[in-house]
Amino acid sequence: MDDRGGSFVAVRRISQGLERGNTCHSTSAEVVAGSAAWLGRGLSCVCAQRRENDARPSFDLTPAQEECLQRLQSRIDVAYDSSIPEHQEALRALWNAAFPEEELRGLISEQWKDMGWQGKDPSTDFRGGGFISLENLLFFAKNFPKSFQDLLRKQEGDRSVWEYPFAVAGVNITFMLIQMLDLESENESAFDLLYCITFKLMDQQWLNMRASYMDFNTVMKSTRRQLEKELLELLEDITRLEDLPSYSLLTR
Question: What predicted TM-score, i.e. pTM, was given to this entire model?
Answer without folding.
Answer: 0.74
